[in-house]
Amino acid sequence: MSQSKPSGPSYQARLEAVLESVNDGFYALDADWRYVVFNRAAEAYFGVSRDVVMSRVIWEIFPQGLGTPFEGYCRAAMDQGVSTTFETTSRLRPDRVVELRIVPMRGGGVAITLTDITERKTADARQRLLVNELNHRVKNTLATVQAIAAQSLRDPDVAPEARERFLARLMALASANDVLVARTWSGATLHSVAAQMARPHGDGERFAIEGPDVHLAPQTATAMALGLHELATNAAKYGALSTPDGRVSLSWTVDGKDEFRRLRLTWRERGGPAVGKPGPSGFGSRLIKRGLASELRAEVKLAFEPAGVVFTLAAPLSESLREG
User: Fold this and answer.
1) In this structure, is residue 278 part of a structural domain?
2) Which stretch of DSSP H or E encloses residue 285?
3) 10 Å Cβ neighbour count for 201?
4) Which of 7-11, 88-92, 245-249, 292-296 shows the lowest per-residue confidence on average (mean pLDDT)?
5) Sign of the CA dihedral with 61 first, then 67, 70, and 75 last
6) Residue 3 falls within a domain, yes or no?
7) Helices 160-182 & 218-237, crossing angle to 10 degrees?
8) In the prediction, which pLDDT does 5 show?
9) Is the sign of the CA dihedral 29, 35, 41, 44 positive or negative?
10) Which domain holds residue 133?
11) For residues 215 and 255, what is the distance between their CA atoms, to the nearest angstrom?
């Protein structure tokens, strides 16, 4: 009993239909550099019919491509099987920016996909401009607040220490802003926040900072920056950073599995003056404990051990706090 052939369009026909439906320009070259596929989007972009290019050598149709990185990438795909994706200004249409993906084809030849990304690049540039403007305004606002605070806190009834602490916290907030600016407000790494905090106090000479990549959302990065600033300020006034031989170890790990993964951070001071019994909890201690505990949903502990202050934090990884 004979079997009937499957009905419906052939694989080749289905493939051609898919290529015709996509918005990206697509064309393929055989091992002799002749066009074997040239879809409708490619016709529209290059302004030429496929009937004109099919079976012709690409360098006859596109001689301006010779001697360019495009030719080099095509030959790497043809001769070595190397795929490449890159962005470039279009040589045919200099006002456009395109992304080219060049991949080797099974059996020989190369396939090239062309995507016009001009609008996307323009939108990215506009977004960068807006972010830069936002950064400029935030810095101006912080500078204005700092100037107002400095003027207002000149009152003789205001303790110099209170004035210094307030202005220092504003500077810590500005430093956190600088870290966020560097990553266009997408957040910051815990290591970058820690390094920014350590810089005014001797950086690597006084601090040992170690831990895996952990990403902080913008608001979480600000809370972490302010918390670490308070720890460093207290260490500089009363703890390990108040003596030449004092040191601070700041380390963190990530442990657990899946939704139970947790960040565990430890701030440990050594080599400073003997630590006595702490007095009433001040604003700084409340900022360290409550600010980080609230923002990170963390368990925090500030211990005044004889050898030096130890601060520990344990927080679940979440959207505001995650690996990598």
Assistant:
1) yes
2) helix 283-286
3) 16
4) 7-11
5) positive
6) no
7) 140
8) 47
9) positive
10) 120-323
11) 15
